[in-house]
Design a protein that fits this description.
The complex is a heterodimer.
Chain A: H1 3-11, H2 15-37, H3 40-57, H4 68-89, H5 93-102, H6 106-112, H7 117-128, H8 131-141, H9 147-154, H10 158-176
Helix pairs in contact in A: 1-2, 2-3, 2-4, 3-4, 7-10, 8-9, 8-10, 9-10
Chain B: H1 6-10, H2 13-17, H3 23-34, H4 37-55, H5 63-74, H6 90-94, H7 99-102, E1 119-120, H8 125-136, H9 145-163, E2 168-174, E3 179-185, E4 190-196, E5 206-212, E6 219-224, E7 230-232, E8 241-247, E9 261-264
Antiparallel strand pairs in B: 1-2, 2-3, 3-4, 4-7, 5-6, 5-8, 8-9
The chains are: A mainly alpha, B alpha+beta.
Chain lengths: 180, 272
C-alpha cells in the first residue's frame, strides 16, 4: 500500500497500517532528522517524537492539501529544525559544532549511505543552482537557519535571500522535473 | 494591524516552505495564507520542492527506534479529528461511501506499479474516494434555486455511480500536488470526475475533459468548472484513460493543446 492510503487507515486507529507506514517512512524521516540535528542521540529522540506524532495526529492529515509523504516529511523537518534552534538558543552551539566535526558534511554523508537515483539527482540539481541560491536553500533546509540568519551569514539583504530561496526551489523543481 | 504589508507576506512563501521563519512570523504567515489562495498554492508547490531535498537524506533507522515507537504507539491515544468546516476530515466523508468504494476490505482493485513522469497516480481507493467526495461537499453556499436543482440532479447521478456494485475509485497527483479523482463503474459506463488544485485558466479559457479510446478520436466529456464534480456517462468498456486539456472559452470539438493531466482507467475496471 502507498503512504496516502496507509495514513488514512492509521487515522482510523489501524495498528497494522501504522507498522506498514513505519516501514515506508522511517528511513526518510530518520535520515532527514539526522541530517538537520546531527547529534545521533538527539536525532533518534526527535525521529521517535515525529513517528509517534504520525500516529497521534494522522487524524489531521487532509489529502486535499498534498501527499502523505510531503505531510510527513514536512512534519519531520519542522521538528528537527525546532530542536536545532532550541539547542542553539540554549547555548549548545559549541557542542553542536563539536558534533559537526565528528559527522561529515553533506557531501560525505550522502556517499556513506546507499546511493540512490533520487539522491544523485538532487545533488546534481543543487550543483546547477547559483552559489547564492544553493547556500540560501541548504543553510535553511539542511542546517535549520532562519532566513534572517542566512542573510547575516551570507551578508545579503533579507529581500535577496527570500528571492534566492524561491528561485532556488523553483529551479530545483525544473531540474528534478517529473522524477518522483 | 499586521507589521507586514501584503507584498512582504507573499515573499515569505519560500522561507516558510523551508521552515526558515521565526515562530511569530510563521504564525502571521499561516494566518495570512488562510485568506490568500495564491500564497497557499505557492506554499504547497514550494513545499513539495523542499520535500525533494528531504528524500536525498534518507538513511535506515536504527532497529531499536522501531521497537520504542511501536511500544509507545500501543499506549498512545490518537488526537480527535479536527472539526473546522474548512478541513472537514476526509476520513469521515469517505466512510459515507459503500465500503468497497472507500477501500475497506476487500481492496477493490489490483495495484498498478507506476512511474509516469507527467502524472503519478497515488491511486488508492481510500484517498481517491476521499478526494472525490470531498469536493461533493465543498460546493454548497450562495446558490440560486436553479443551481440547487441542478446540484440535486447531479447528486442523484453521482449517487447512482457510487451505488454501482463495481464502483471503484482512483486518483492521481501531478508534480505540483494537483489532483484528479475518479469514481467509476465499468458496467454502468459512468464516472464521477473531479479536479483539485487546478486554478481556473486565465483569459476565459476552460478545462475540458476527454475520453481516450484506442483507435478513436478523443471524445469530449464536458467542461470541468473549478472543483465541481463532473458526471460522465456512456463511457464504453474500451475506454482507456481520461485527459484534461486547457481549451478556448466554450470548449473545443477536439483537443487543441497537450493534456495537463491524464488518468488511466484500467484500475477502475475499464479497457478489458
Amino acid at each position: 500500500m502507498e503512504a496516502d492510503e496507509l495514513l488514512l487507515l492509521v487515522a482510523g486507529g489501524n495498528h497494522q497500517a501504522f507498522e506498514e507506514l513505519y516501514g515506508l517512512v522511517s528511513g526518510p524521516v530518520f535520515g532527514l532528522v539526522r541530517r538537520v540535528v546531527r547529534d545521533p542521540a538527539q536525532s533518534e529522540e526527535v525521529a521517535q517524537e515525529v513517528l509517534l506524532e504520525l500516529w497521534r495526529s494522522a487524524t489531521k492529515f487532509d489529502p486535499d492539501r498534498g501527499s502523505a509523504l510531503s505531510w510527513i516529511l514536512t512534519l519531520a523537518h519542522r521538528r528537527a529544525v525546532d530542536r536545532v534552534r532550541s539547542a542553539r538558543a540554549a547555548g549548545e552551539r559549541e557542542q553542536r559544532e563539536a558534533w559537526r566535526a565528528h559527522f561529515p558534511a553533506f557531501d560525505q554523508v550522502t556517499e556513506e549511505v546507499e546511493a540512490g537515483l533520487e539522491r544523485e539527482w538532487v545533488r546534481r540539481c543543487l550543483d546547477r543552482l547559483t552559489e547564492l541560491q544553493r547556500q540560501s536553500v541548504t543553510l535553511a533546509y539542511y542546517e535549520g537557519y532562519t532566513y534572517r540568519e542566512v542573510a547575516e551569514r551570507l551578508s545579503l539583504p533579507l529581500g535577496t535571500v527570500k528571492t534566492r530561496m524561491r528561485d532556488g526551489l523553483t529551479r530545483m523543481r525544473e531540474c528534478l522535473g517529473g522524477v518522483a | 494591524m499586521s507589521l507586514f504589508r501584503r507584498e512582504d507576506l507573499h515573499s515569505l512563501a519560500a522561507p516558510y516552505a523551508l521552515d526558515a521563519l521565526e515562530p511569530p512570523e510563521r504564525v502571521r504567515f499561516e494566518r495570512h495564507m488562510k485568506d490568500c489562495d495564491r500564497c497557499a498554492a505557492e506554499v504547497r508547490a514550494l513545499s513539495e520542492d523542499a520535500v525533494r531535498l528531504a528524500w536525498s537524506t534518507a538513511a535506515p533507522a536504527p532497529a531499536a527506534l522501531r521497537d520504542r515507537v511501536m511500544a509507545a504507539v500501543r499506549t498512545t491515544a490518537q488526537d480527535p479529528v479536527p472539526q473546522e468546516a474548512a478541513r472537514e476530515p476526509a476520513r469521515a466523508r469517505a466512510t459515507q461511501l459503500p465500503p468497497h468504494v472507500w477501500g475497506a476490505q476487500p481492496p477493490p482493485r489490483q495495484r498498478v506499479r507506476r512511474r509516469i513522469p507527467l502524472f503519478v497516480p497515488f491511486a488508492t481507493a481510500t484517498a481517491a474516494a476521499a478526494l472525490v467526495v470531498a469536493s461533493l461537499f465543498a460546493v454548497q453556499a450562495n446558490r440560486t434555486q436553479d443551481e440547487l436543482n441542478a446540484e440535486r440532479d447531479r447528486s442523484r447521478e453521482i449517487a447512482h455511480v457510487l451505488a454501482a456494485p463495481d464502483a471503484r475509485a482512483s486518483s492521481g497527483r501531478d508534480g505540483r500536488g494537483r489532483t484528479i479523482g475518479v469514481i467509476a463503474s465499468a458496467t454502468e459506463g459512468s464516472a464521477v470526475v473531479t479536479l483539485g488544485g487546478y486554478s481556473t485558466p486565465p483569459g476565459g479559457r476552460v478545462h475540458q475533459l476527454w475520453l481516450m479510446r484506442p483507435g478513436a478520436q478523443p471524445r469530449s466529456l464536458g467542461l470541468l468548472k473549478d472543483d465541481t464534480p463532473l458526471v460522465a456517462t456512456s463511457l464504453g468498456s474500451s475506454a482507456t484513460s481520461l485527459a484534461v486539456t486547457v481549451e478556448p472559452a466554450g470548449g473545443s470539438p477536439q483537443p487543441t493543446t497537450q493534456p495537463i493531466v491524464q488518468l488511466a482507467l484500467k484500475s477502475v475496471g475499464f479497457g478489458e
